[in-house]
Write a structure and sequence with these properties.
The structure holds 2 protein chains of 2 kinds.
Chain A (H helix, E strand, L loop, with lengths): L1 H13 L2 H17 L6 H20 L6 H20 L4 H20 L7 H41 L3 E4 L2 E7 L4 H18 L3 E8 L5 H16 L3 E5 L3 H9 L8 E3 L2 H12 L7
Helix pairs in contact in A: 1-3, 1-6, 2-3, 2-5, 3-4, 4-5, 4-6, 5-6, 7-8
Chain B lengths: L6 E6 L3 E6 L8 H14 L4 E5 L8 H16 L3 E5 L3 H8 L9 E3 L5
Parallel strand pairs in B: 2-3, 3-4, 4-5
Antiparallel strand pairs in B: 1-2
The chains are: A alpha/beta, B alpha/beta.
Amino acid sequence: MMELKKYGKKILKKIDLSSVTEKIIDAGNSSLAKEKLLTDEEIHDYTYELVELFASLLGESKAMPEETLNALKHLMATVNAKIQMRGGSTESFLQLMHYIQYTFMSEIVNYENEKNDREFLFLLKFFNNIVMDAFRLYQEEREGALQAQKEEFLAVSTPITEIWDGVLSLPVIGTLDSVRAMDLMGKLLKRIEEKRAKVIILDLTGVSSIDTQVMHHLIQVIRATALMGSTAIMTGIRPAIASSLANLNLNLDEIQTNSTLAEGLKQAFSILGIKVNKI
Amino acid sequence: MKSNLGFNLTKLGSSSLLMEPYDNLDPLCPGPMIETISNSLFKTPVPKLYYDLNKILIIDEVYYDWLCMLSKACSIFQTKLIAINIKPSAAISLSSFINKKPPFETEVEMSN
């Protein structure tokens, strides 16, 4: 950043910002606008903003211009995100950044036949660092969004419903891994406590495959349920899963099973001492 | 009956006792507690002893051993030990290290 103070203003004096801006807009129109990743208006506005921020950074008298740097990184992350949203890749964004870098550096190279090696090298380093930072910021935001999506999926894929007084139903959908199993167990036990549920029906109709590890998780869920005083019944076991279970080296004595949810409900009634009569 | 050993023992009619452990119950020193309970069951036998785990957030191996010992002592007097109001966190911690049914029963709440 000390180099910024040393070279920044010198470089700025050698650059025709309006010419740089026009060249970048033309390049953006012929690539990003053509691929409909950014509109003409967006290319115009973003280019002006980017060039202004780059110029501000170069002309800064402070050694660490945090505010300007952060504003630039956020703008770049925004542009990248917009390109990605419209089906572009990070490559498209990086190509734009490299073109901006190239345009700035061309101005230096061509400047009045002066020896501009150090300023040239500084600009190279300057742009590389900023683009990498912007990319890192974008990655963090993306990972945050993915994590939020994952959590939402977990919430949706383990719906726990009270289907009768004291009877909870939990249809397990999709693949059950360690993370989901722990999440499922936590939510289920909390509901058992809230509802004072005496029977839990774990429906596996939506489970396509099961292995030893998944079964271990389910057995732990069933064991924890029993420790809370509830009886767990497993239903919806398809023939393929039944074969897998039979082949696994696990003790299945503590598991009560039924082929369908309806049968599971009948068993629940029997446990609760409830008789259902036709009117 | 309030005990100095860290629990409260309450008679519920003629068929059960309710044991409520306090924070100062020491599962590492079960001897005196077992003696007190045994005396109570000897004088007034009941079919059920309810152990209220409402305030216990984690059941580790030490606490589990204490419950198993208590269950054994109860069975000598034909009394069933029934743990009630187990917290989810306690159920998860217990299920993580036991691989068979505990020797005592568990229920959501006291039954009539």
